[in-house]
Every structure is written in C-alpha cells, then in structure tokens.
Amino acid sequence: MQSQLISEKQDLTYLSWTRIRHSSGTAGSFLKAYSDLNGKRIYYKLSNYDSFLGITGHECINEIIADRLLTLLGIDHLRYQLIHADIRIEDRLYETWLCASEDFKKPGESKLALDVYYQAERRPMETPMEFCIRQGWESYLYEMLAFDYLILNRDRHGANIEVLRNSKTRTFRLAPLFDHGLSLLFPCRTEEAVRTADVMEDKPVQCFVGSNSAYRNLSLIPPNRFPSLQPLRITDRDFLLEGLEAALSDVWLDKIWEMIWNRWCGYEDFRDSRRG
Question: Does pLDDT of 113 surpass 70?
Fold first, then answer.
C-alpha cells in the first residue's frame, strides 16, 4: 500500500462483504472483505454496519488515528490505509470510508487466536498474563496495555491478539498490534454526544490478559517495566489528524485530540507515581 489516505473516491463495488458480529455487545456488525492484488492479500473493514441504518460510526477512522499514534510512540503495529470508496452491500450502493491492511503473516506462518493458544498450552491455574510472560511476551503486553489506555480500546479480547507460528522453525511470535476501531469516541453517534463526552472516563473494556478497566490495567505493569515510549507532544496533533477533515467534523477531531492528549498526560502522571 502506498498512500495512507486516499480521499479521491474509489470504485470498490467488486468486493464481497461478510458479516462478522463484533464483540462489544452493541447493535450492528463489522463487515469484512479481501482482495488479492499483485500477489498480496489486502483486507478491508467497514465501520459499524446495520441493514436498516447503513454504515455508521467512525471505527475505520479510529484505526488510522491509532496507527499514527502507534508510529509516534514507537510501537510495532499493523499499518492501515483509509480509503474513500463506493461499495455494494446486498445490492445497495454506499459511499463511505473504509480501512485496508495487508496480511501480517510471513511466508510459512499460520495464525491462531491467543485465547485458543492459551487454553491449549497453559499450565494449571496459570493466568493469561502469567502465560504470556512465560512465553517471553512481557514487553509486548506492557506496550499494549499502555496504548489501550491512551485510546480507551474497548475490545482487546482473546482473538484480537494473535499468535503466529512458523512450522519450519517451530517458533511463535505475537502479531503486530491490530484492530483498534472500538476506541476513542466510538459509541458517540452525534456531535452533542461528542461535546459532552468525558474523555477521562474509565468505561468497561474487554482485555484478555487484564481486567475490565483500562486504568487498572496500568497497574499490571511493574514500576520498573513501563515501556520506553517516544513522548507525545502538543505539536503531534497535526500529524495524528492530518487529512481527516473530509471524514470527520472539527467537533470530532478536536475531541479526539483532547482525549488522546489528556490521557497521555494522565498516563505520564501514573507512570511517574509508580516509579516513585
């Protein structure tokens, strides 16, 4: 993939979409599709879809903002592309924004969900966190917990962390961080809801290796093991939100930046207090 943001409308009506109900408990689905271009498999994902309301929400835009934030922080992750396109679902034409990503598997690798791998290989009474630490994935988890707090990721369930197995070398690794759509202001559907949102509220989250609180999950990071993230700066706002004005209004973009910046400051305060 070349440009991260394609604003000129593309014709993607040839894609075939499959319905995968998301695990947040809210109404609707994420629809997913794929294509094989020049020997590469590209995966596509829509924001929330409802057969009556159509495509709503801004989860795909969240993926791009999360991608850019991960880049700023220096955390390994799956890269996303945001595309303005016409698509077709059940013989209805939609103009929308969607996100695309390449397959993160290397040749010879297969993937399975972390919760499945954990159930197959865990020791008696071993927690998911203890299991992952035994596998040597401790630093990965701490980066993930810190990042998920910053964007209030609500959906880090056991299949949103994937284990990649190389059958020839018999080695295992965790996939780069991916799937961050249910984050930031994702439940908000109106500008009024955005304006009144409390950006520091600790809403319930799904976290396979932790608790249902993104804030409490920071306590799982030992004081001397906080990840060495590149510091966020006020001037990073332009990089995070560049080009997204066509997809979201200033009300949304301003609130998203307020959320990221305030939560970053809160994270720094928590980290420094733990270090003493």
Answer: yes
